[in-house]
Design a protein that fits this description.
By secondary structure, the chain is mainly beta. It is 12% helix and 35% strand. It is globular.
Length: 437
């Protein structure tokens, strides 16, 4: 895989999450990590720096997805330095507050634990399992240990996990169970006893650590979605407001991550497409037929996509990837059509990260509306979701070539209520002002 052109961002939109209770469901408030409401808000930081920092780490996640697509790497996710979705939850008894990264491309809940053999620089307190009365290690002889990917015993009675990433980063520790509590914006809380977690004591990563670990929302027995099971009926949804870096501004907007009945997407404007399941894959695959730029249709040919089979399930939707990655030929065709209709001066990206950039002089440059034509669902993508501002006077196309890899990233999911119904095997989109959700 070429390393100089495959550029995308993992979890560049960083959010803090708190849970509220709803009728037979949960609604989780999302706050952008760079928001003025965020405890990680840095008023003195260059407003474009987070996107540049994240870009420099993006090749690692590309390696992860590409290797998974060909069955050559563990099913997990890397966290970049630039940022992440941050989800507040508590673990243990008494509850100990944590900041995790909810990710639809990961299938395990893991966090750093004391005593650390090697831990990354976590700016929030690290969990101490010895202080939790409900913490228990998973024994090696259990079916649970055998069901988790990359688990082992190593001569010990306790089951261990190992997650290795594309750049050599890793997390290792004990597989355990403990009570996970989701906080409520109304003051209530909801607890889930005996939730499987990875208690990481040997963690070496390529970022400085503004979170405790990740919360997997993908498939697989260890993911949070699977473990919540019938409690949420296989349903969750989220609504991402326009990112602060899309326009170079700051924002105090919040949005929701929903579970259960609160996650049902309905009403005017809803379109739905099948979620395709694949053997031993944790990812959520969709079938993308084409992109439309105005009246011009750019076909998405599955034969060029190593992930797809028989024309179905040719693209992964992932909340933890910021840019949209397309097979090189498809990207080139789409870029050419976009370039035909943009009447601005084309310039090189000074960071050498993006392929298509323009000089902008107004707050609302005239970029085209692009439609993602999924099977049964035409999803309109506004310019705020398809172009990202990297400096005061440069904006770039937020898509990138990636050989045979295809990922529908979270930038293009902005201002869409995105609902996953895993029992019905469908994904729904609804145009929404996510800053008001």
């Amino acid at each position: 895989m070429s390393s100089h052109k495959i550029v995308f961002f993992f979890c560049l939109l960083s959010f803090i999450v708190s849970l509220s209770h709803a009728l037979n469901g949960f609604s989780v408030e999302l706050i952008h990590r760079d928001s003025e409401k965020s405890p990680f808000f840095q008023p003195n930081q260059n407003k474009y720096q987070s996107i540049i920092n994240a870009a420099r780490h993006s090749i690692n996640r590309a390696n992860h997805f590409y290797k998974n697509a060909v069955g050559d790497a563990p099913q997990s996710t890397i966290l970049p330095d630039g940022g992440a979705y941050l989800m507040t939850y508590s673990v243990g008894t008494p509850p100990f507050k944590q900041f995790g990264i909810p990710d639809t491309g990961s299938d395990i809940v893991w966090l750093q634990c004391e005593p650390c053999e090697t831990c990354f620089n976590q700016t929030t307190p690290i969990f101490k399992p010895a202080q939790s009365s409900t913490y228990k290690n998973v024994p090696c002889s259990s079916d649970t240990c055998q069901s988790v990917r990359s688990s082992s015993c190593g001569g010990k009675n306790n089951c261990e996990y190992t997650i290795t990433y594309g750049d050599g980063s890793k997390s290792e520790g004990d597989l355990s169970v403990d009570t996970v509590t989701l906080e409520s914006t109304t003051g209530a809380s909801v607890s889930f006893p005996k939730t499987l977690i990875g208690c990481g004591t040997d963690n070496t990563v390529s970022f400085n650590g503004r979170s405790s670990g990740i919360v997997g929302l993908a498939g697989g027995p260890a993911s949070l979605i699977t473990q919540l099971g019938s409690t949420i009926g296989g349903k969750f949804s989220y609504c991402l407001p326009p990112s602060t870096f899309a326009s170079g501004g700051s924002s105090s907007a919040t949005s929701k991550l929903n579970f259960g009945d609160a996650a049902i997407v309905s009403g005017a404007g809803v379109v739905s497409t099948p979620i395709i399941t694949k053997n031993d894959e944790i990812f959520y695959f969709l079938t993308l037929e084409s992109f439309s730029v105005g009246t011009k249709r750019v076909e998405f040919t599955s034969s060029t996509n190593a992930v797809g089979e028989g024309g179905e399930g040719n693209i992964i939707i992932d909340s933890g990837t910021t840019l949209t990655l397309l097979p090189s030929e498809i990207y080139s065709n789409l870029e050419a059509e976009v370039a035909k209709v943009v009447n601005l001066e084309r310039v090189d990206d000074p960071n050498n990260l993006f392929d298509l950039c323009y000089t902008i002089t107004s707050e609302e440059p005239e970029f085209p509306v692009i439609t993602a034509n999924f099977q049964g669902a035409d999803v309109v993508l506004q310019p705020v979701s398809t172009f990202v501002q990297i400096s005061d006077n440069i904006a770039c196309f937020a898509f990138t070539p990636a050989q045979d890899l295809a990922i529908f990233g979270n930038l293009v999911q902005q201002n869409l209520l995105v609902g996953y119904d895993l029992e019905a095997k469908k994904l729904s989109f609804k145009p929404t002002d996510c800053s008001k959700e």
